[in-house]
Specification:
By secondary structure, this protein is α+β, with helices and mostly antiparallel strands. It contains ten helices and seven strands. Keywords: Cell inner membrane, Cell membrane, Ion transport, Membrane, Transmembrane, Transmembrane helix, Transport, Zinc.
Length: 342
């Protein structure tokens, strides 16, 4: 059986794709054997002299991936610890000679379901960027498509910055689609055809809260990184990283505004539903009050006991009808007067 089919898009080591970049040429695809040879040539003695850098993207669902990374790369222990941590908030940290990034992203078949959010882990230094995920994600695949389109990248930091901007673009698209859904719900509300749209609003609001909580970078870690970046990051890379985080903050601000709009629309729909319930309850109360005299009188006259008044009177029926009408009209007057007073 074909190994490519067995590994579901990755080779025996879990490598999905690999590229070698130089400062003046686009990325060149490499396989696992070439990556091992390239990594073996890196040493602290001449690492600063190399004009190339490497990007390796792995599938963590492959059982051999983590062992391969430990055997052939110098990723720090914090990177492997982050792979098994329960808390997966988005963050970028400076650890020793590396940057460790935990980035949450949405799946390819994202359908506005909170379960369609997964994590991408990165470890990068001056010459190597390693990315790993368990499920196919949109942003990293957009980065891979950019590399395949022969875009130029001059450092692993540029790859990270491009990835963050791709993530911001994906989030912008989600906010745009959510806005369209909210506009549709608002149109249904204005036309008094709410139906299941109330439940849809609740789902959208929960999704926006989850996206904002998971995708927003931890400000403390990001502030420390921007204040004291690694020595191998040049000033332009730090500036681009700061700018990408600012762009991402704008998207998160739009998401917060969208949450507030959903909240206001929910409150308006709840008030509208409450008003309809109050109107229905009032009508039910009026009917009950108006029917009450009829029920009392008919109950009294329907008792099989002696001494029922007007039983022998030829005009007794019409007298009772007139009495019921008068009492009902009097009750209606008091009920409607109280309503007008409110």
């Amino acid at each position: 059986m074909d190994l490519q089919q067995l590994s579901y898009g990755a080779d025996a080591s879990g490598l999905i794709c690999g590229f070698v970049f130089s400062h003046d040429t686009p990325g060149r695809p490499i396989n696992t054997e070439e990556a091992v040879h390239w990594l073996s040539q890196i040493s602290q003695a001449h690492a600063s002299d190399r004009k190339e850098f490497l990007w390796l993207h792995f599938n963590l669902a492959h059982t051999a991936t983590e062992r391969w990374l430990q055997d052939h790369t110098d990723a720090p222990e914090e990177f492997y610890e982050s792979l098994h941590q329960g808390s997966r908030s988005t963050r970028i940290e400076h650890t020793d000679y590396h940057l460790i990034a935990v980035i949450n992203d949405v799946l390819h078949d994202f359908s506005f379901d909170p379960a369609d959010i997964a994590t991408l882990w990165l470890s990068l230094n001056q010459h190597v960027m390693i990315s790993a995920r368990r499920k196919p994600l949109k942003s990293v695949d957009r980065l891979r498509n950019a590399v395949n389109r022969q875009e130029l990248f001059h450092s692993p930091s540029e790859l990270l910055t491009h990835l963050l901007r791709d993530q911001a673009d994906v989030l912008t698209s989600i906010v745009r689609d959510a806005t369209t859904k909210i506009d549709e719900i608002e149109d249904h509300f204005l036309s008094s055809r709410i139906g299941r749209k109330r439940a849809n609003l609740g789902e959208l609001r929960r999704l926006m809260v989850r996206l904002q909580r998971l995708l927003a970078p931890e400000p403390a870690a990001l502030f420390r990184l921007l204040q004291k970046p690694p020595s191998w990051m040049v000033e332009t890379d730090v500036h681009d990283l700061r700018q990408s985080t600012e762009e991402f903050s704008v998207v998160l601000s739009d998401m917060a505004s969208l949450q507030e709009r959903i909240k206001l629309l929910q409150e308006e729909i709840a008030a509208h539903v409450g008003e309809q319930n109050n109107r229905s309850l009032f009508v039910l109360t009026v009917v009950t009050v108006l029917v009450l005299p009829i029920n009392i009188i008919s109950g009294l006259l329907g008792m099989n006991v002696g001494g029922i008044p007007l039983a022998q009177d030829a005009q007794g029926f019409w007298f009772i009808v007139g009495l019921v009408i008068c009492i009902t009209a009097l009750a209606a007057y008091f009920v409607l007067r109280d309503k007008d007073g409110q």
